[in-house]
Fold these 3 entries.
Entry 1:
Amino acid sequence: MGIKSTFSMLTDFKIPKLYDADGSLDSRWYVFYSYKSPDDGKFKLFKIFISSKIYTKSGRRDEGHRIIKEYKKKLSEGWNPFQSSERQYSNLIACLNEMVDVKLRILRKRTSYTYRHVVNAFIRYLASKKMKGTMVSDFTKLHAQEYLDSLKRDAGYSNRSYNNHLATLKMFFSMLIKREYIIINPFISFEPLQIEQAEIVAYTNDELSYIAKSLPRFNYRLWLVAQFVYYCFLRPQEIVRMRYGDVDLNRHIIVLSGRQTKNKQTQMVDIPDPLLEQLKKIEWMPAHYFMFSKKLEPGVVEVAQTRIDGAWDEYRRAANLDANKTIYAMKHTGAGRLVDAGVDMRSIQLQMRHHSLEQTQQYLDRFRRRPNVALRSTFPVFGE
């Protein structure tokens, strides 16, 4: 943008300022600015009111300065309130549904379900507060705070679920900013809550021995799935997306495309020798076949990971294993046994597909919080 056009744009508006009602909390505070009307060339005054539910002067000033900063940025980038005036009066729920529809065209089915779940929960809240008719520009930071408080206070959400809802709503309101429905993201200043690390659950040697003997007879295909988790650290959702063409027995590797992985990047893992020997024994299907389709048998239909979860729960109950002994605990079991075997951390990082050695170190440090059977049984006796 040239100097002349930049100067012209700056002369179209007068910078936002704060009206503080001479410090009175009994009067409405607002941010005001003027913009040149395209009809008659005269400046028209615009006001953005600050919520009267902010009960301190400092709180209202902070909110006012935040609004000023956002509007200064928008105006300097060429935003025109006359061109955007119609959109800001759009219905909030209709706008969010529109943004969800945009996302549904590009997201995986499971992610789409998660986003729709979050937005539906938010819409139900709006309905309960008689806010279904709220315009998109009228939903403020204070409204956002009240909703987030309700997630913990009324719905009893865990910190993790709270954070998922916060992140999703931040994203959708950011989409509304890009489409010039709103100027300020009401959720943007809220920070995620701290999440406690989940406990590392691993199988004991006795449990592994029992599973190795009983699971092949109970469900051989599930036995193969368990080994992909144990040896290759694959997630159940990656396993149901895996095709025969992804598994290279000659090179001893599995190539996971971006469509399969959590971070949507193509990745590779090694096939350890014990699993390789198992795979050599099974019938090999065409490359485009999924290895685990309906009933975990080979097929052309991609199934949900719940097929694996359901099959494992059935076996777990039959084997009388604890409820926390999920199939994904096989990953922790395999990692722990690699550490016990003295495998170097770099090799573990690559097999686990961690982005850094630091991430792997943090993961392995969690194992040190678990009882160390080897240490207890081999510690030298005092005085001997």
Entry 2:
Amino acid sequence: MIGARQTAGGAPAVDGSTMLETIIVSGKTNRNAASGSGFQGTPDWVYQTPSSVSVVSREAIRNSATRNSRELFADVPGVVVSNDNAQSQGLNVNIRGLQDQTRINMMIDGARQNFQRSAHGSTGLTYVDPAFIRQVDIEKSGTSGVGGAASLGGSVNFRTLVADDLIEAGRNWGAEIDGTTGTNAYHFAGNASAAIRLSDSFSILGGISYKDVGKYDIGSRHPNTTNLGNVYDQMPWGSETWSGLLKTEMQPTDDTTLDLSWLHYDTEFAQGTDSNLQNDVNDVTNDTVTASFGWDPDSELIDLKTRLWYNRVKDEEHRSQRTSSMREVFVDYTMSGVGGSIENTSRFDLPIGNLSLNYGVEAFRDDGDTKANGDDITDDPDEAWWYQGANGSGTRDVVSGFANATLDHDDWLSVSGGIRYDYYTIDGSTTVFSELKQIKIDPDCVWRCATITIPQEAYAADVDLSGGAWSPTFGVTVKPADGLQLFAKYAHTYRPPTVMEAVMGGTHVGGASSGTGRFAPNPWIEPEQADTFEIGANLSYDSVFQAGDSFRAKAVAFYRRVDNYIAIGTVDLDEETYQTNFGAYVNLDGTTPMRGVELEANYDAGRYYIGGSFSYLDADYATTYTYNGTSHLTDSYILFVPPRTKFSLDGGVRFFEEKLTLGGRVTHVGAADKNIGGSASAGLVSSWQTGDYTLFDIYGSYKFNPKTTLRFAVNNVTDVAYVPALGQSTLPAPGRTVTASLNFKF
């Protein structure tokens, strides 16, 4: 078998011809390709995969001139990025209506990014620099393989650069420098990276990146349907970001590989968090370390892959004084994660077809720790729980074993099935506060009764949860004709609570003497579970209308139902110690169904191209929960409802032997559903209800030579003022922005 780093050898025959060694072609898909003939450069393997997968290609990343990593997903069907905190450089991806609390498994090179931070908005934040990303792989459904543990709605994996991205064929080193600047406070973004191949089996890659963006102007065209809020001009904006990448790729033997990688990210930005317009300064660092080993000998029984990873995100926040009772404080939010996986694939040639077995184990630990410090907090330690309580400290361990089987019959039929078992434990401790109460000295008194005040007391609350579940998958793929693939898939997924959901305590910032402003863990919380059904089609054709053209398309329809959806509600813990009526994470009643359609397609004729994507989502979120035998409306929880529709059309032309490319893009995002939930939640949810909007962008590039490329872009050409999907009305998006970048290769 010839692998990615092997060559076929042979000996010359007597007649002078060359007799090659036997070449065994396996059914492995080349997922290493970073670009292809699909929509915005999507690699071809996406249109050969019988599942709802999408890719943000290296080509799309280069052409986007992003202000932050959220903008990478603008044209991906079925995906919307949360913009509720547009000042932060953190990324929160919503896939088919699910986000936050590791419902979507966010990864960098397979290393989980499980950082959580509670606030009035989204909680799951991933910090990554697009400068070192070669592509983004998006899985919108559950899988039984590596990466599927403890995830409810899919995964997003940012894959970093490899040496072959910089070193051209026939050379042993390569380098690249890229610099971008623009209008509307897009001050500068630049990066430099280099790789050297010291031998056929050892290479080193390194890179450094810097970005400085400031306070932008919103659009000058204000549609009547857009609520722009009234505090934008006073809000803090801008960020300064440094990042670095160091990677080695080794081939110790002919059939083994070993890759080591370290990605460092450091960003500083300010946030306005309330109507007082006080600025909180955040310094966030993200370190991701991975080690990957592969063993692929000349045997169909062994194709072994292992991975170890470590991730640590630390958000150091300085909160300025709000009022006399809300004083200056320094809060450190930290999430450390460590994990690994081992999997093997065995292949068999049976009379009825080719059988592939994939099996393995993955495990990881999340270790959350939040600390608040300040002069006044030292005098009154209970104040620390204003910040520590909603961001609990504790550990979550997940261990998962899986097995999958795929049978390919006569190149037209494929049947697959898999099973996974997830087991989790959560261990942590927090502090809860009793209610401040006044009671009558004489219980029989009915008029002008003397009372005494029962002060609030702090109680330690320990959390110890565990559980597990089986999750099956099943799929069928049919190829009725060349270039056409039809598929159907079912996946059951299981997500245990996070540390944040399980180890909640303290009070709302500013303190609370009663009511749901006091928080507590819910000892009865159950994991979420979901069933997803999909049907879809892949189309892949070449030379359709003329020699050398290509057409690629993927269409998927899905239905998902979620049980035990977790949101904020109220629980009672202990009447005797006045521990009642706490805000806590609860399981919603019934089923939350989600259904939709996703489509992407592209036609490329060389001289011109046109492609597009479309999404439709209909989600009916549950709004009640039950405690003490009574049904209640969810109380003041934030629920992010993505728009029902999203449409993108991208086309362009190429001139001068494809040295010059001119393109344009139109994106329409529909309105989100009206307010949902009860009267208590409607007010908060309304802050994140966005109207529809349409954007026009143009872009282009010119290759002066194979080593030098100029790129330009004009985003939001019509300078429309709008609030982006999953955003909030006080944080509108940037107005017209012109950028230009120059790329040099060496």
Entry 3:
Amino acid sequence: MEACHLMGARKISLYGTGRNETEVIEYLCSLVEDRDEPVNFLQLYLTQRCQLACKYCGMRGSSERSDMSESMLRQAIDFLFTSDSKDIRLQFFGGEPLLRFDLVKKGVSYALKKAERLGKKCKFLLATNGLSLNKASLDFFRSNNFSLVFSLDGKEKVQAINRPPLKRAFAERYFKQISTNLERLAASGVSFFVNCVVGPGMVSYMPETVDFLINRKVRNIRFSYMMGVFWEMPEIRRLQEEVREQFVRCKNDHPEIEITACDDEPVLLCSGIAAAHNGDLFVGSTLPLKQRFTHLPRINYYGNLNRLKTINLLKRNKKAEVEKALGAALCHKNEFRLLANNIYMGILHERLFNRLLKNHDKS
């Protein structure tokens, strides 16, 4: 890492010991590309229910009353298709969206008819914990050219750290079901990657996680840094070094395997727009992090679908979003410190992969 980055990390790590908040904001904004984001991507939070109780997810513990209605589903899709873009992306999210597979199917049918009528293309994505995958859903995803995000932190002992089942009685058999369904997905022909969330203190598990996934024919692995926790500089270094090591290892020994990263950092302020079950619209990653960043929903709230006419009004600039989010958190000292730290993690993660890909292309 460059010296200026280390200096910036120390500045954020030592925030609260006399450092100037304005300096932190200016420094982070200087590292973010000044670019406008397309407004063609909508995440639909079909339900807040889930079979797991992931410690880093703000959606856990919700009831059936938090499911999206069919009318709200159609309204959200109509809103997405007001985009000036000809290429539309629609992601089904949760909770666990496959608990409302009926809504997924209805949403796809409605979006495809809308796309044909308007002369647009619609790409479908879905994030899942894998527990409810079956032949019917895999056939549907293959027929409709879905891309899946399979959320799995690693082998059983690693998964148990932050992704335990909601019901303890399910604990003994739930991982076997996840592992079996992952193998089915790998053999199905459906495009997917496994998203592994790595938190402080978990970096040492990454090599065995890669081995575990390779043995199950996974071809695309993404290591995501945990958000909503503070990353100290030694742990940032360990994560970056291990990501680099696994990237090089796979390129050399397993060229069929890709170690990838999010292409929209910092993820905390990603360009996707999230539609909650009630039609409230937020910056992409706000809802899963609402328990860690209690003021983020207010900062990142766009409005409700009932009051917004076109998605084009939500055009965003990445640098401006960073400045806005940090500026709004200034009066909440601990949250500002955590927000700045996680934004910085995203910047470092993106730069690491840019260097890795550049070096690989040269070799």
